[in-house]
Amino acid sequence: MACVGGYMASGQWKRPEDTSTTKDTIKYYTDLARLADRGKISAIFFADWFVGFDVYGGSLDTMLNAAHQVAHLDPYALVSAMAAVTNNVSFAVTQSTTYSTPYVLARQFSTLDHLTGGRCAWNIVTCFTDSSAQALGHDKIMGHDERYDMADGFMDVVYKLWESSWSPDSVELDRTTGLGFDAQKIKKIEHRGKYFNVSGRSQVHPSPQRTPVLFQAGTSKSGTSFAAKHAEAIFLNTVNPQQAKKTISDLRAAAAANGRDPQSLKFFPCFMPIIGRTPEDAKEKHERAIANADPVAGLAQFSGYTGIDLAKFPLDEPMDLSGMSQAMAIQAVFRALEASEGEEKRLWTPRRLGMRMALGGLHPCPVGTASQVADVMQEWIEEADIDGCNISSVTNPGSWEDVVHLLIPELQRRGLYWDDYKVPGGTFRENLLGEKTLRDDHYGATFRWKHEDKAVSFGG
Ligand SMILES: Cc1cc2nc3c(=O)[nH]c(=O)nc-3n(C[C@H](O)[C@H](O)[C@H](O)COP(=O)(O)O)c2cc1C
């Protein structure tokens, strides 16, 4: 996230050597992009949302005081600077379908796709907090399934703008004839739907990928059916490979039922490793991370994600959930956490939960040498059929450097990581899926420009 500290590591910015407090400077991002490019990382993912989490104690104060997931910049603005200093690494930017409009968002991503040379992706989210709704002019957040229904309608409009408005041979820029863009090959889309009515041409000529690579992370019934239709890559929040295996095989099957090649969906579970040069070095880093972790900010993050205010519980007493309507949901999180490695079945206090949230939450957090961490990832690759890992940082600097300098060489030695980008200097989709634009079996490809379209909707 483009804000102080790590996404899943509250409190670590207090270290004297920390640079995450400079996330309001371009240098932070250009340094990060260069490092990722050197490490042959496929993409940098920016999580994003509006406002922040203000459920804990009914306010944002805890998150503000802890400088955790607040004061965060708009990732759109960072990506061009990062692209300018790199050739290969790609960038996934989160944007919500609930508050943007398809026309505006299509233009923003076409712009990014041009400026990055096709190295951009969109993490499609629907937002889930009332405070985001209130900041954006609504009383409360729209219902969960309705948000996905709206997101589905949103996608139709952006596919039309990206895929069908400008024909592939509409860009002439012919200096001899003086013909710039062939108006006969650029049509207005005319969309009438439940949520959006849009009449207009894409404001931007076709970008290298046309549609950016589409990421998503839904886990509910409507979230997964959205993913099976639209997502090319999926973020998972799963605690162990067995759980991930089930989620992945269910989603691949749902995609196949939509006529898609199930292996063309790429899965990225989250990890937050702590990597040392020796086991002792890793242990020391872990102990330091525990000492700096902010469990109350972790709890506030948990409350934000779940909508359940845990501020009323004394920090060091086992939580008495009796009488709470959300007791089952909280118990389910405890059971999920207990299913992860090294977590005992003993009573959960708010501090224990907060510490867990402050150091990776539901993500696996292997601590060890590069070889020990690679063992864990290898198990996931072999058992759960994952395609890559979405890695969160604990410290800045530190975590990303350890990934690039220690972990990736180890994964390469094992043949689990490419020695170079598949298409150096290519687009994100070429490196991820071997194709520049949407695959033919993707729903969005049905919107591609067709010559017979020409007759239908010119003018205006
Ligand atoms: C790794 C990961 C990253 C996510 N990033 C964001 C984000 O940046 N912004 C956001 O609003 N939601 C984000 N989400 C939440 C998802 O979009 C989604 O709301 C959540 O997984 C719940 O799924 P559901 O809506 O299908 O119930 C993320 C989820 C995961 C697992």
Mean pLDDT: 95
CATH architecture of the largest domain: Alpha-Beta Barrel
Helix content: 25-40%
Distance between the termini: 42 Å
CATH class label of the largest domain: Alpha Beta
Largest sheet, in brief, is: 7 strands, parallel
So what's the overall shape? globular
CATH fold type of the largest domain: TIM Barrel
Strand content: 5-15%
Structural class: alpha/beta
Task: Name the strands of the widest sheet in spatial order.
Answer: 1-2-3-6-7-8-11
Oligomer: single chain
What ligands can be seen in this structure? flavin mononucleotide
Segments where pLDDT lies below 50 for 5+ residues? 455-460
Give helix and strand order, one letter per element, not per position.
HEHHEHEHHEEEHEHEEHHHHEHEHHH
Looking at CATH, the homologous superfamily of the largest domain is: Luciferase-like domain
Strand segment tally: 11
Number of discrete helical segments: 16
Count of domain modules: 2
| C-alpha-based Rg, rounded | 23 Å
